């Protein structure tokens, strides 16, 4: 058959006799689309984790700076009585600065606000209303979110570690004596004598609470500590 004849036969070939598309091509296209979707989802999740790690820390630091300024102003404007000590007859209003809390092991320090509502705890640890004030006989109880920059690494605190709390005129040092997990409804940890219903307190204690485990809240992590020392702050330190 001549070359011209072959060309004529090829031109007359029906369309349905052309080589079929490989059967697996559609499957690979689906796999490709799914792969792209997984990649995009992974990038979104990576961005979310990055924000949770660094974005919230930035927000927290900015809010804490503002609270520090409010605290200095509040403590600096408190009226003094005869001996030069500030007259503090009423607790701070909800959301107002109440104390300074620092944990040397974590290298972190916060202005603590009064109250434990969601609004109060958004950018600061919060003092449980009705519990003792710093250094007072009873239980100074503070809650904080389990987020980076706040109580994220609270589980690393061990007995013997120290926690410092400051009010307008004094600095209190507490020594940790317990690190434990309780149910979220175990309110006994907030009693004046923790875990002893109906008992009058005989010592000054500190209790820190946060969610457990990380990224969830079906338990509570409790750090308990007892007061080991108390000292007056100098005039220059009062509003630091």
Automatic annotation (TrEMBL):
Biased composition (Basic and acidic residues): 8-19
SUPFAM superfamilies noted in UniProt: Sortase
Keywords annotated in UniProt: Hydrolase, Membrane, Transmembrane, Transmembrane helix
Sequence segments annotated as region (Disordered): 1-21
InterPro entries: Sortase, Sortase_Class_E, Sortase_dom-sf, Sortase_E
Transmembrane segments: 30-51
NCBIfam families in alphabetical order: class_E_sortase (NF033747), sortase_fam (TIGR01076)
Name the UniProt record assigns to this protein: Class E sortase
Organism: Amycolatopsis nalaikhensis
């Amino acid at each position: 058959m001549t070359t011209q004849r072959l060309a004529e036969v090829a031109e007359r070939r029906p369309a349905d006799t052309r080589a079929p598309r490989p059967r697996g091509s559609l499957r690979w296209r689906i796999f490709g689309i799914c792969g792209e979707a997984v990649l995009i989802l992974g990038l979104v999740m990576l961005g979310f984790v990055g924000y949770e790690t660094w974005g919230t820390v930035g927000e927290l630091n900015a809010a804490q700076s503002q609270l520090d300024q409010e605290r200095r102003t509040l403590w600096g404007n408190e009226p003094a009585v005869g001996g030069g000590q500030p007259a503090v007859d009423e607790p701070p209003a909800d959301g107002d600065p109440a104390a300074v809390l620092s944990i040397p092991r974590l290298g972190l320090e916060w202005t603590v606000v009064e109250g434990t509502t969601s609004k109060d705890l958004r950018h600061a640890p919060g003092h449980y209303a009705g519990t003792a004030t710093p250094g007072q006989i009873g239980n100074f109880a503070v809650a904080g979110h389990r987020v980076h920059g706040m109580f994220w690494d609270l589980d690393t605190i061990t007995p013997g570690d120290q926690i410092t709390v400051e009010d307008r005129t004094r600095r209190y040092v507490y020594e940790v004596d317990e690190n434990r997990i309780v149910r979220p409804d175990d309110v006994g940890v907030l009693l004046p004598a923790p875990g002893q219903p109906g008992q009058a307190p005989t010592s000054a204690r500190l209790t820190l609470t946060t969610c457990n485990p990380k990224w969830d809240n079906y338990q509570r992590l409790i750090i308990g500590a007892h007061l080991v020392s108390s000292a007056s702050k100098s005039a220059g330190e009062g509003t630091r």
